[in-house]
Request: fold
Amino acid sequence: MGSYTHGMNSVADELRAQGRQEMLAMTAEERLSLAFSLGEADLETFRKAHGLSRGEALRELQRRRQRGRRTSQAMLEIIG
Reply:
């Protein structure tokens, strides 16, 4: 007896394959530009969600990244 979904691709599979092909067609510079623009969009979303300025949002995210790590005087001076 065969599988009900044998040979079928999900929409997610097709979108993943399409995204992979689009990334492979990009130059390294284009991929970096996309990564930076996505990061900026995420930062803006975080900033708005928490009612922070851009600088405050950056410092908060840096603080969150440092939680659980060994204390560094240099990082304490940078992010407070």
